[in-house]
Amino acid sequence: MAQQSRVLFICTANAARSQMAEGYLRAKYGDRFDVFSAGVHPAGQVSPRAVQAMKEIGIDISGHRPKSVDTFTGVPLDLAVTLCDNAGAVCPVIPSAKRTIHHAFPDPHLTAGTDEDILDGYRRVRDAICTWIDATFVHGLPM
Known about the structure:
Blueprint: E1 5-11, H1 17-29, E2 33-39, H2 48-55, E3 79-82, H3 85-90, E4 100-102, H4 115-137
Parallel strand pairs: 1-2, 1-3, 3-4
Helix pairs in contact: 1-4, 2-4
């Protein structure tokens, strides 16, 4: 079996976007990718709304914990992906990654309205991340 490519998803708090991306890539393409996530300023926990949004599509990220990008210092990575504008500005290059790309997604935590409106914001971001991952990683690492 070929060695899996190592992918690190990064967002500011490692509480929603990067956790959803990690969970989805692992669930859908885990046979080809060894996948991780981290944050520039990690939160205390993964967002319960992110956990709920992923559970709705059959992916359990309830056991995930936010980690700092510092955890991956010196860890060889094939690809680092920053998922939000803040992470892209704060850490545009991960030295141990062969390549870094940026693809911004809105912060679902900033969705205004009722609890249901906010959860819908998480669902929209989840769906956008899943669609982007399917288009980007279906044939291997993006070029």
